[in-house]
Design brief:
Length: 373
């Protein structure tokens, strides 16, 4: 499988209450310098990564760039690497940003997949999360993106918000399924350290759903979406059929090499993983003085690789191909861990199908623990 390319756009207009990603506010005057630094950073990787068949603009908020600036980055990528003719090119968008005309331009320059961060269709919840758009803006963005020609259109949603009832969540979900979208990412809210939510949390806020309520949300979501034709293909991801599975994110789960450009971006190839400096000023300073912005790297041991292969594969409905795993690591999981695998199967967490060990829906709910067998 060809490698994937990730571009981290490190700007946000305001910080959402739950967010721990790296981004800067009120720094948009740095966008031209950032674009130039990205172009220079590509030169560091020309020899190791020659071609890509997915490009993903994430962040941060890529929709703070103009379609023209996204187009310039794509041109720079094509000057340094080969982009496959059928490449999946995704951009993440905040519903408050691009207009209908921007969306048409974006489609016109070859972006063929859009992921809109809607998070909720309840204005009270959007305000609690610190999102800078309303439910109405979210619905308009989806409509305008569809009219602009984006058939491969996805949205992100968050559940498990303190005080949110399952009925309110299912209402958001059911409206989402009648929108012209083909991909849904449904994430459970996690309270990350050093976020505004973590600082507020514990004193005045109601409790988030505990383990059993989380499981109820998870199962209700999976059953409902399966019932209306969605494929539950990864713990948090659903597609309206195999054509709409995220090709880029699938590379992470299948251990295909990827290159990340921009502050805090991570990369992986062979047994090596590396990541860029987190701060935009440090990133700009490094690249502008001709130095690589890589902060650190690590070589994964055989045991780490094997554990990560199991861990990532068992997050997906595709599962782990046991014969490929045996050839790669010399371990026959079925033979050596037979009794444990049988126990997991009896508990309804895994099943065997065409040489794959696959998590069931109940297995996906506890995917992080499945890999530890
Ligand atoms: S827009 Fe995205 S990256 Fe920016 S603060 Fe909100 S969640 Fe974080």
């Amino acid at each position: 499988m060809p490698a994937g390319l990730y571009i981290h756009v490190p700007f946000c207009r305001s910080k959402c209450a739950y967010c721990s990603f790296y981004s800067l506010q009120r720094a948009e005057q740095e966008i031209p310098r950032f674009l130039e630094a990205l172009r220079r950073e590509m030169a560091f990787h020309r020899r190791t990564f020659r071609s890509f068949d997915t490009v993903y603009f994430g962040g941060g908020t890529p929709s703070l760039l103009t379609p023209g600036q996204i187009g310039r980055i794509l041109e720079d990528i094509r000057d340094s690497f080969r982009i496959a003719a059928n490449a999946e090119i995704t951009v993440e968008m905040n519903p408050a940003d691009w207009t209908a005309s921007d969306l048409r331009k974006l489609h016109g320059i070859g972006v063929n997949r859009l992921n809109i961060g809607i998070q909720s269709l309840d204005d009270g919840i959007l305000s609690f999360l610190g999102r800078r758009h309303s439910a109405e803006q979210a619905l308009r963005a989806v409509r305008e993106a569809s009219q602009a020609g984006f058939g491969n259109l996805g949205i992100d949603l968050i559940y498990g918000i303190p005080g949110q009832s399952q009925e309110a969540w299912m209402e958001t979900l059911s409206i989402s399924t009648v929108l012209p979208v083909v991909h849904l990412s449904c994430y459970e809210l996690t309270i990350e350290p050093d976020t505004p939510l973590a600082r507020l949390y514990g004193s005045t806020l109601p409790e988030p759903p505990g383990d059993s309520r989380s499981a109820d949300f998870f199962f209700a979501t999976s059953r409902y979406l399966a019932g209306v034709g969605y494929l539950h293909y990864e713990v948090s991801n659903f597609a309206r059929g195999p054509l709409y599975v995220s090709r880029h994110n699938s590379k992470y789960w299948r251990r295909v090499p990827y290159l990340g450009l921009g502050p805090s971006a991570h990369s992986f190839r062979g047994i090596r993983r590396w990541w860029n400096v987190r701060s935009l000023p440090d990133y700009l300073a490094a690249v502008e003085s001709g130095r690589s912005p890589v902060a650190a790297s690590e070589a994964l041991s055989r045991e780490q690789m094997a554990l990560e292969d199991r861990f990532l594969a068992l997050r997906t409905a595709r599962g782990l191909h046991l014969e490929s795993y045996r050839r790669k690591y010399g371990t026959d999981l079925k033979g050596e861990n037979g009794p444990l695998l049988r126990k997991l199967a009896e508990e309804g967490l895994v099943e065997m199908s065409r040489g794959f060990l696959r998590p069931t829906r109940a297995g996906l709910a506890v995917a992080d623990r499945l890999a530890l067998f």
